[in-house]
């Protein structure tokens, strides 16, 4: 994804259509002296609908759509003819999108399946025509219901990427290099911090035509929860990942200290992230020999599954995929 094309947050005004008014009408035909009321109902106002699409990865197509306005329903007519419903507006969104009220931040809807549809802002009901109000004592009602007003509200859409594996690490830990080595994704790679400015997704092929999805999240630094670096803007994408793969380079001063800092930043953002299954990949292992690896193993946190890998030399990448696949299916 190009940097400017990845949009995971939009805010817009959603206005549904008003319902059409019911009709006040009386039957007037030759040889029918007392035709009676026959006013039809008004049509329903148009809904604003969200629909999930597996073909979309970003909210870019909604970035400049600040007002979404649905059509009003048509008024009823004589002869018990119901007015036409207002045309619904369907907004297609990528899977993992949540809709929130912009004022109260209340979670309204969550789109997780392809083709899933939810009514974001319902249209107003159409009014009843005077045909509904005739009684034995009121055989010629001269009134009908007006249509219900549509709703107008400000909505926030947020995208949280759906992936099996989320890569967590400091800048330059080798996350993008790993993704490019084991998938067809081509994230930007450089020898400077914050090369990755937006999340990247890659489909990792596995044995017997199986596959899983990996998300490369921009690097986290100490103090990210307070807004340092890229802050917590992209941490929301980790919330939807089944497993967190922590990546720490072999040339780090202390593996356990870097792991502690990363874990602390996740906890500050959302303590529930600590409930996810965690694995550790020690990257850039092509610069190590067997003795150095054994020395470094003492610095690995206890009860944390780990593996030494090198994305450049492909060292242990197949074992890493086995490890991830087993974690996903356990």
TrEMBL record:
Residues 4-162 form the Obg domain. It is found in: Cytoplasm. The keyword GTP-binding applies. Residues 19-45 are annotated as: Disordered. Pfam families: GTP1_OBG (PF01018), MMR_HSR1 (PF01926). Residues 36-45 have a biased composition (Gly residues). Its main location: cytoplasm. It comes from the Bacteria. GTP binds at residues 169-176, 194-198, 216-219, 283-286, 310-312. Mg(2+) binds at residues 176, 196. Its EC number is 3.6.5.-. Residues 163-329 form the OBG-type G domain. CDD domains: Obg. Keywords: Cytoplasm, GTP-binding, Hydrolase, Magnesium, Metal-binding, Nucleotide-binding. Its cofactor is Mg(2+). InterPro entries: G_OBG (IPR031167), GTP-bd (IPR006073), GTP-bd_Obg/CgtA (IPR014100), GTP1-OBG_CS (IPR006074), GTP1_OBG_dom (IPR006169), GTP1_OBG_dom_sf (IPR036726), OBG_GTPase (IPR045086), P-loop_NTPase (IPR027417). PANTHER family: DEVELOPMENTALLY REGULATED GTP-BINDING PROTEIN-RELATED, MITOCHONDRIAL RIBOSOME-ASSOCIATED GTPASE 2. Monomer. An essential GTPase which binds GTP, GDP and possibly (p)ppGpp with moderate affinity, with high nucleotide exchange rates and a fairly low GTP hydrolysis rate. Plays a role in control of the cell cycle, stress response, ribosome biogenesis and in those bacteria that undergo differentiation, in morphogenesis control. Belongs to the TRAFAC class OBG-HflX-like GTPase superfamily. OBG GTPase family. This is GTPase Obg. It comes from Belliella aquatica. The gene is obg.
């Amino acid at each position: 994804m190009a940097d400017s094309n990845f949009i995971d947050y939009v805010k817009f005004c959603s206005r549904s259509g008003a319902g059409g008014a019911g009709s006040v009408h009386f039957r007037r035909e030759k040889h029918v002296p007392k035709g009676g009321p026959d006013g039809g109902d008004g049509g329903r106002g148009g809904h604003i609908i969200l629909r999930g699409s597996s073909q979309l990865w970003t909210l870019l197509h909604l970035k400049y759509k600040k007002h979404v306005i649905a059509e009003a329903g048509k008024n009823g007519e004589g002869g018990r003819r119901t007015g036409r419903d207002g045309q619904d507006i369907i907004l297609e969104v990528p899977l993992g999108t949540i809709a929130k009220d912009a004022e109260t931040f209340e979670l309204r809807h969550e789109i997780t399946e392809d083709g899933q549809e939810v009514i974001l802002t319902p249209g107003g009901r159409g009014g009843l025509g005077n045909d509904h109000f005739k009684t034995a004592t009121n055989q010629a009602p001269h009134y009908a219901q007006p249509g219900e007003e549509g709703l107008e509200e400000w909505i926030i859409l947020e995208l949280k990427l759906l992936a099996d594996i989320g890569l967590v690490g400091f800048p330059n830990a080798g996350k993008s290099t790993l993704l490019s080595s084991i998938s067809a994704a081509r994230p930007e790679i450089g020898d400077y911090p914050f090369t990755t400015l937006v999340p990247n997704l890659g489909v990792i092929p596995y044995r017997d035509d199986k596959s899983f999805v990996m998300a490369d999240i921009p690097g986290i630094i100490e103090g990210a929860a307070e807004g340092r670096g890229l802050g917590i803007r992209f941490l929301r994408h980790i919330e939807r990942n089944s497993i967190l793969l922590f990546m720490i380079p072999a040339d780090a001063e202390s593996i356990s200290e870097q792991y502690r800092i990363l874990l602390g930043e996740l906890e500050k953002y959302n303590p529930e992230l600590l409930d996810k299954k965690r694995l550790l990949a020690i990257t850039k292992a092509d610069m190590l020999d067997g003795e150095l690896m054994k020395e470094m193993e003492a610095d690995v946190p206890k009860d944390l599954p780990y593996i030494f890998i090198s994305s450049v030399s492909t060292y242990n990448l197949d074992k890493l995929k086995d490890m991830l696949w087993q974690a996903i299916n356990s």
